[in-house]
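Appendix B.2, paired examples.
Example (i):
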Amino acid sequence: MDNRLNMATLGADESRYINREISWLQFNARVLQEAADESVPLIERLRFVGIFSNNLDEFFKVRYATVKRIVEAGKKGRKALGVYAADELLEKITKIVIQQQEESLNIIDDILQHLKEEGIYVIKENEVHFPEHSEYIKSFFTEKVSPALVTIVLNDDLELPRIQDLEAYLTITMKKKGSKKPIYALVEIPSELDRFVVLPQVDGNDYIMILDDLIRYNLESVFSIFEYDEISAHMIKITRDAELDLESDLGKSFIEKLSKSVKGREDAEPVRFVHDQTIDSDTLAFLLKKLGIEYTDSIIPGGRYHNRKDYMGFPSLGRNDLLYAKQKPLPIKGISLNDSMFKKVAEKDFLQYTPYHTFAYVIKFLREAALDPKVKTIKITIYRLAKLSHVASALINAAKNGKEVTVQIELRARFDEESNMRYANKMQDEGVKLIFGVPGLKVHSKVCVIERQEGSRLKRYGFISTGNFNGMTARIYTDYTLFTANKQILKDLSKLFNFFDTNYIVNTYQHLVISPHYARNTFYKLIENEIKKVKSGGKGYIRLKLNSMSNYAIIDKLYAASAAGVQIDMIIRGVCCLIPGVEGMSENIRLISIVDKFLEHPRVMIFGEEGDEKVFISSSDWMTRNLDNRVEVTCPIYDEDIKQEIIDTYTICWNDNVKAREITAAQDNAYRKNDEAPLRSQFATYDYYLNKLN
């Protein structure tokens, strides 16, 4: 497609940047593409529907809610949002989401049809034909569902009880002949029960019933005390504003304030109302009035089922042929988990790339530090922890062994606040020193530094990562972790922890690039260096791999580099406000996005042509929040072998022609097509590391 023709249809701002929210919705469309892709195993396709739905829930709770606040404040918000005024943007978002929801319903129908061909039937309440199923459903309802069921009868006079955020409800309408007014009720789908109920096999076939339909099957027993001739059930769901409003009460601890604010989400303003599109208009009008849904809320007609995020937990039924083949995480070449980590790191830096490598190296390092009598201090930043965290256990173990353990824990990690507060209290009780962030800044860096007594001196060891120290997400998020004993890097890391302790003092760093104080200008200089090379007759080359890019100022710098003749290749998984390939603005910028089995999460920056590269890994995306409002660490790679390893794995990703989408002004998420042999980068990366072991 000719980008120049596309650009001619856009306004001045639109022709230079893609709006952040619209770009995010296009990223989620790529997730939905995976659900539609017939080369993806069937059950995995359903799970991608779940990921798509979960992403959308979080988008409305945060991004849509933010735009809505701007509208309700009577402002246009162009400066904050870019491209569109806030009210225009709300309208565009709703239109796109309605279209995507319709597409997702068609995809689910297609998947369910293919499951039938595999002998797997997802049946509704009117499709129960076998006596053993009827008996099982009634028994399951009586024993498991009925005791957990919350049922609310509605009328005009009764104030509606609080509708739980993101819980799914069945709206019950009971009608009796001769009566003008129906009886309305709400049934809350019990979230503590699995959404999918596996029924007994019949003739070798598998049968599953969604919990909603199992309740529908038993409606007569729930509402037996009412007189009605007709009963129907339609699902609804509300999404509430999830932005935190922290009190300024100086008499309360930060944990108390945050806990109250998280609790306050339960009563926050609604921002989205999703309903079964077959619900009758009178029932819908009654609900909207009762719920106080306003014109600025997004009202989305959907399918029979909501909370489709539950599809992420669709039962596997032992059908490994309908799932991705499991790949065992690999060891790192030359390092056994039976070795002393300190001894190995003292000899040479090494790189862990999860999930291709096992996350166990991080746990092993911390556990060894917890037991080693020579280790005196452990300092670490924590952003998101697994529900059952071996990292937290190792740190508590270290404190019990008399180590001085300092944890900078970010309690405001969105949607992980409660989990982090729970671990914070537990670690504090065990003698771990906690630091709760920096005023006005989130601490998003992922770093650790350990001091060990070796003879008459303290020697530092540590690791720096692009992702969270979370054993669960490490199975599905791709992330680099550099283990090092480099004195210069670890000296800078120690300065960073001093800043956490005394953040009124801004340190200078010789090697690490630290946000918010130095990152923006450092990245500008690195881009400028490539421009200077071109102007002096050389070649300029920039390669980036990020989750998101939305800062207009840094985008303008890249446009200037492109105009000067610098070749820029970018792999951006999610939001990207930059428009590549536009003559006169960005013709030297190429951009792809990869969505596949694993979630692409590392941030990598490579400046310079082959043989003269400067390579960095980072916790930071190129978004305003990362550059200006968060503490982030970008680390140079000095070890030549590791530098080459990162370049190699970047190149594998860049050459993907199976799961790579070319991002253009058209925003059509077209798969990259070329004459090269098929290369699926995530599979090829695993093979790359497997070959290293041979």
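Example (ii):
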Amino acid sequence: MKAFIISSLLFTGILSNCFAQNTWNVASIPAELKEKAHAVIRKSETIFTVKNLGEATEKNHKVITILDEQGLQYASMTLFYSKLEKVNNFEGVLYDSNGEKVKKVKKDDIHDGSAVGNGTLFGDNRYKYAEFKYAIFPFTVEFTTETTNKNLLFYPMWFPQEDEENVAVEQSSLKIQMPANLPLRYKSINGLAEPTLENIAESKSYTWQVKNLQVYENELYSPKWTRYGKGVLTAPNEFEVEGFKGSMKTWKDLGEFDNILGKGRDVLPENVQQEVKQLVANISDPSLKVKKIYEYLQAKTRYISIQLGIGGWQPFEASYVAEKGYGDCKALSNYTKALLKSVGIESFYASIRGGSNERDIHPDFPSQQFNHVIVCVPMKSDTIWLECTSQDNAFGYLSDFTSDRYALLSTPEGGKLVRTPVYKAKDNQQNRNIKVALAEDGNATVVAVTEYTGLLSDDYSDIKNLSSREEQQKHLYKRINIPSFEVSNFSIQDEKKRIPTATVKLDLNVRKCASKSGTRLFLTPNLMSAINTVPPALDKPRQTEVVLKMALTETDSVTYQLPKNATLEFKPEGIKFENRFGTYQSEFQVKDGSLLYIRKLVRNQGKFPPESYAELIEYYKKVSKADRTQVVLKL
């Protein structure tokens, strides 16, 4: 009997071990989750445990099956840490397709490096990185990490599919454990179910969970994932970072915390105060004073990232910037405020979510959602915004890095949430004037002058100010929309106005500008602005609204000097149409051996219902067809 019990126990242990080894067998993944997937998140579990106002631990357990080569990016793990974030544990395991263990991450396999970039002078940010180099598909990786966090400005933001295309989710969960005396605020997004609540001793836990999410395919012109993916934002009411206590219960409270961090840090050296006062002594217009001080800032300082001080959120003193001549966005913004204050002009420190393709913040959920700082200067008849990190920005102009989004002003009364300027179609223009000398063989010499304004000028101003002439030419070759050409000469100029401009002049030799067939030349007059691509049709109903992010106006005036013996055999009629997405018009004029082509396109900015996508396709089809309209010449 005793032997039978021992045998049974041994058998049970072997069976249990086999089951453990085969938990991640790829065959157990539901077939619908593998459809169109490059990877499947088998299990993702995050447990965020708040110990007090200023400390929390975060445990993450993630298991991902890599189905093919396009999913290899998920075979690695990067864990960032700093003085305020300590890594307690970092483990990794590789399994084959049957769920059998192949390899464990060893200590020597984990790369520990600085996360400070070339543009950062000071910073304590570091990272640990491990990667499984394995190519017998499919296979599974498992990572287990734990960190201690003393920067509780930030609580988890959880989106189980992580804005990744072609990744399915078998199961994923977020659990936040709070002390009973500390409330948790959260905002569920896009239909995510309410959390499961549990009271245990002196704590309360909130658990969100999803299962069996099939892959999604990103739709063109869709909103950011944080606007349509299932997820949750979380935040405390009260928090503490390195002895500084604050609240984010309201935007007013959070702005007040920035005031606390900046208190006493706006003192300028006496010589700088006198220099700035002398600089504006003969200027009576307040806005011109601001302009003069902004130009002083640009001439005297440069941007260098400094990731230190209250988790990287406290600005260095204005006196430090005055002495060193550099600073990060916080330090330079604080310094600019101090310069303006010294001449009696009030301004506000403005936290913002910077980035050309960044998501905007959720205005109905006060929390630390920002990554950048600029300055707002309120005037009687205007509001001036200053990007203090740029030596080339036009005064009062915000590029697509910070325009058209929310900013949190730190006013004497606390935080105030406002919108930054929106640049409209009249601001963002591409005005092109082209002279073409067309030869009988269809080749041509071209002089094209294009003025870009507003957001459309950004790239060309950057090219001019940040690139060598050789690099500028390479950029231009990538942007010129002509099948076969050579650039014989070019120039780029920019003008720093409130709506800045960049002017590009091109001298081109164009091969087969017109196609020759016998005694005829077939000419497409729209030489450089033709829209050749049309959004693809969908094979299923669209799920997300259509978002056109930037309004713009394009005008083209193209004059063709025709060959001497050429006569016009066919001239098309002008075209004009309009719908909710924009307007289009073109016309053709013939005079004294020349053909003049005039085109104007206006694209509207906005958000449109999902069903409007079919209408957008038809709009672009009409534009593309009109842009390809041909003229026939007889030689």
